[in-house]
Structures are given as C-alpha cells and as structure tokens.
From TrEMBL:
This is MFS transporter. Keywords: Membrane, Nitrate assimilation, Transmembrane, Transmembrane helix. One of its GO terms (molecular function) is nitrate transmembrane transporter activity. It comes from Marinobacter profundi. Gene3D superfamilies: MFS general substrate transporter like domains. Residues 442-454 have a biased composition (Polar residues). The chain crosses the membrane at residues 12-36, 48-67, 79-97, 103-125, 137-161, 167-185, 219-243, 249-268, 280-297, 317-335, 347-370, 382-401.
Amino acid sequence: MVNVPSRPEQYRALGLSTFAFTLCFAVWTIFSIIGIRISEDLGLSDTQLGLLMATPILTGSISRLFLGIWTDRYGGRWVFGILMLTTALCVYLLTFATTYPMLLVGALGVGLAGGAFIVGVAYTAAWFEPKRQGTALGIFGAGNVGAAVTNFGAPFLLVAIGWESTAQVYATVLAIMGVVFIILAKEDPLAASRAEAQSKSFAEQMAPLKELRVWRFALYYFFVFGAFVALALWLPHFLIGVYGLDIKTAGIIAALYTIPASLFRILGGWLSDRYGARRVMYWTFIASVVCTFLLSYPPTEYVVHGIEGDIRFTLTVGLPLFILLIFTLGFFMSLGKAAVYKHIPVYYPLHVGAVGGVVGMIGGLGGFILPLTFGVLNDLTGVWQSCFMLMFVIVAAALAWMHYAIRSAERVEWAANEERTDLPELASPQLFYPLNRKSGPATGTSGKPPQQRR
C-alpha cells in the first residue's frame, strides 16, 4: 500500500506543478494574440490564421500520449522540467521565422507546451489520496488560466515590442521555470513502483484503451477542453470581426471567458468529490447546449407583412449578452473538465499517464480541429456564428451519448438489484477495468472497486 505523503509535501508538489502548467498553457495559446499581428503582416485568410492557431494544439495533443507513458515510467519531475526547457527553445527559434510555412513548423515546436497537462496530472495525482484527488486535480487544471495571462498581457507586449520580442519574453520565463522545477520538485510517491511499469510492454500499458468508457471520456473532453482551447484562440479574432473591437479590448473580453473556464475547475473538482461527477457532467452539458444555441443565432432581420404595412425587427446578440453567455459557458466547461479527469485515477490508478494521455490527446485535438474548422466555416458560409453552431452539435451529441450510456448501465444495475456510487458511465461489474492490486488509492478498506461500494 502506498503511504500518503504529508500535507506540506502535497502542497509543494501541487503548487509547483500548477504554476508550471499555467506558464505552459500561456505559451501554448500565444498565437491567439501574436497570430493576429502575423496575419496582418502576411495577409492571411481566416483559414490560414485558423491553421496557424491550431498547429501548436496538434503537437500538444499528440505528445500527451507519449508524455503520459514516459511520466508513468520515469516520473513527472524530469519529464516536466525537460519538456519546459525544450519548449522554451522552440519558442525562441520561432522568432526567426519569416514565411508562413516556417511559422507552421515553428508552431509545431511551440505546441509541446500543451503536453505539460498530462505530465502534471500524473505527477499531481500520485501525491494525493483518492478522496482528495478531484480537488487537487481541479486546482492543477486551473492552470488553464494561462490562456487568460496571454489574453491580458500579450496584447500590451505585442503593441510595445512586437510579436518577435513577445515570444522571446515567453521563452525566457518558461526556461527559468523549467530549471526551477527540476531543482525544487521531488520524486512522487509512486517512484518505487515505477520499475514494474518500466518492465511492461507498450501493449500492456495501453490495455485499458480497449474499453469504450475511455473513448466516451475522450469525447466529453473533446468538448469541455478542446472547445475551450479553440475559443480561447478564436475569441479575439471573433470579437474584432463581429463587434469591431481593438485587439486590447478583445483580449480583455476573451479573458472573461478563459478565467472562469480555468479557475472554476477547482470548484468542479470539489463538486465531483462531494456530489459525484455524473451530476456535474449533466450540469455542464445541459448549460452548454443552452449557451451554444443562443450564441449560434446570427443577427437576423425579420419582416412581418402587417395590415397597415411591413413591420421590421431585428434579433441579435449584443456585446453585453455575448459576454454573459460566454462567461456562463466557460464556467460550466470548467466544471466538466474537472469531472472528466476525476475518474481516471479512480478507474485506472496504474495507468493514469496512458489513459489520461489518450483522453487529453483527443481533447487537445479538439483544440486543433475546431479553430481550423471555425476558419473554414467562416470562409465557406460567411457567418461568424457558425463556430457556435458547430459547438452546439458537438455538445448535444455528447449529452445524448452520455445519457444513453448511463441509462443502459442503470438497467443492468436494476436487473441485478444493485445501486452504485454517483460516477458517470458506470458499467456493469464485468465491464469494469480490473485493478491489479488489493489496496491503494482506487480501493477502500474493503478492497473493492469504488463502484461496488454503496
């Protein structure tokens, strides 16, 4: 049985990993601001701008799978530190790019910053007992506020010193944090058992991915995280185009979305610990369906042919209502992000890096696919709100699939005359991933998996 570390050790690990992830996320979304200036300089189309914004998300998403496996094998201290140093070098080299193809290649290197998420999840989860993992991972996940750091700060740096120097400032800060992390962070409590993981084959490490539950989690994360990243990148451009704002004002308003979508992840973790992640996921998806539906409505002028002549009126989402809706959407997406990751260390305690890496990869791919799709939809339809139309379809499908899966699982429980704890996607016992130990974070005093306890 793994000994629970002391509270100071837990807080030290949580604080270091959260701050490091915040800086990494700020770097990962840097093109949301400097991309606008680059687009003006090179005369890019919306599709080209969307691809430039999305390219770092692609690298950050795919790298999560391998970084998660490496963290399971070698521990988060060195993987996290080396990752930050490597990313800082790539960000610095980006400033030498002078053409669009060169910028795309540089953006691939910048995207490594996004892989920091799964490294931090695996590292942080190892320090906390199961009943506090949801809250701890919620606090760590609040590092998404790094997007708000970029939306707030980067516009002022951009105006003052240009996009190249802005990128160099980011590279310097991240490199310093990489060195600090290696020096101050400690090996996690699972370091002793890591030798066993190193002896396992790649196929053994990836065995949990045969379960449909993992891919349902991945779809949920595609929306709550992927769409969050996509909007964090796209909103400044959207606000400038729809409401005619300047880049500083657009960045500040975009931060009103990214801040709640990041900080309230802490609340989402606590709520998942206390009330169950199934309820939190329902709240998230229902609220998101409503918000994206309203945001999808383009400015429309109606003409009613009345008795005494035509009656004209217009329906549009004004800036104050838009800010309210986007704030609400960000709040509930933050709850959902925490709820999804609440389950991974519970269901798959020995495969947090592998399973979390796949879920994070699919979610991150949403951050790659969606900005690119937003740009394509703009060019094809000429309707700015088409981005929210697409998001509405995605979240409605996720809600429908989750509800169907939960109802199917409950029918199995009713037939067996059993009731299980309030976690999402509960499957019947024969479908539950078998834990390969009798005690530890994923089991209680009875040694039974969580969903077998009342």
